[in-house]
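B., you asked whether I could sanity-check this one before it goes into the benchmark set. Here's the sequence:
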Amino acid sequence: MIPLDSHTLGRVEALVRFWRAYHKRPVPADTRMTIQQRRRLRLMMRAADGRTNGASYRDIATAFYGTGRVASAPWKTSSLRDTVVGLVKGGGAMIAGGYLQLLSHRKRS
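And here's what the prediction gave me:
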């Protein structure tokens, strides 16, 4: 039973992907996120995990982008620093419940 509401199409798409996987057929790609969004989500989760385990923003940047790139600019004004801070904040928001937005399709206004 699939309820007929604003999430119906997403549920049907998920059910089709599940059914195809269950019957060992090719599974169509999940269209809820782009490749870039998936990459950013992975980085956010890694950054939040690193920060939770005591890593500094610089440590996280070094792990993601390498020592040379981090050392190439002053850290306090580095765009990499801003990027890492944003990734940590985004990861924290996902952990706090924002991940639920990933389950639904973007709605057009």
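One thing to flag: The longest helix spans residues 35-52. Otherwise nothing jumped out at me.
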